[in-house]
């Protein structure tokens, strides 16, 4: 019925970790995932389930696994201001309460709250800090105190329900339940420890306070002596150890089993196949290494071709510049005597620059292209002789 309800309302709840009967026409169910619990806790349940009236009783508060604590809030910051700042950062925060340590003298207090959104809870926990006023305060998970040993039948401490001889009674008024009779609570608090006007397990009860103090001292003493060890988060407290007699055989008699297929000659068939497979693997590895070397050779050849192309383009540009210079000089020769005098000086400087360039680039050009140096040498000689002839005129 619940699965059909979840499917009709498109609620992604796959399985329930528990669904047991808790009384007449009362069922108690639970989920094993934190996200699923928040989904059911925040959902507005219908008044009818499968055309039957139903009343859903949710927990009064979220469990401690959804609780966070803002540490070391200065006393000069008002609690209302601190709560408003927390709600600005974490809008899904509920159940905000301050924690004062009366047994410790410190100028600060803590604020505990629970978060109704798993996404906001994880985001706040990853940040690890929360800004309140001008302070950047530490944000941690809430660590619960030591669990009390109490009975859910008589609501007294020191034992559990399976060892209790008393009848099951109301948690609030301690009146015993009677089979077949609907219980009407008197709405009067009655403590099973001290008889006060509060819940039996309330922290304000002096008997519960003393019990917690004695429990803490006993646990600290056991930790110091090494009788118990505090578990570290993520550590397996009790590793699995299998002993010889843990899982005895039901029948030790040997059973003769016959295989469905004849496999007597499989070993002889597999041995040459394994040898061929190993030879194929060796051949593939050798082929892969050869391809890697070939690729490397092609890359080196490509780099050399690119370098040769760049040098060839450079020399072609220089040859074109020389040709342009000779053409310009031939046009200047036809000018007057003053222009010829200036031209002669420029030509002599050009001859010197060409000779210097010839000496500097001769060896490098010859190494890269054996035919190009002779071509450049011939071109330089022709250019120099032409320039000399023009200047003599």
The residue ranges in which pLDDT falls below 50 over 5 or more consecutive positions are none
Task: Return the string of H and E elements.
Answer: HEEHEEEHEEHEEHHHH
Give the termini distance in whole angstroms. Answer: 118 Å
Residue fraction in strands: 5-15%
Helical amount? 40-55%
Largest sheet: 5 strands, antiparallel
Strand order, largest beta sheet: 6-7-5-9-8
Domain unit count: 4
Shape: elongated
Number of continuous helical runs: 8
Structural class: alpha+beta
Structure, described:
This protein has 393 residues and is of the alpha+beta class. It has four domains: 2-53, no CATH class; 64-141, Alpha-Beta Plaits (2-Layer Sandwich); 161-225, no CATH class; 307-392. It contains eight helices and nine strands. It has helices spanning 2-8, 34-42, 79-89, 118-127, 206-225, 266-333, 337-368, 371-392, and strands at 18-23, 26-30, 48-49, 52-53, 67-74, 93-99, 108-115, 129-132, 135-141. It has a five-stranded antiparallel beta sheet with strand order 6-7-5-9-8. The protein has a two-stranded antiparallel sheet with strand order 1-2. It has a two-stranded antiparallel ribbon with strand order 3-4. Strand 6 (93-99) and strand 7 (108-115) form a beta hairpin. Helix 7 packs antiparallel against helix 8 (371-392). The longest helix is centred in the C-terminal third of the chain and has 68 residues, at 266-333. The mean pLDDT is 80.
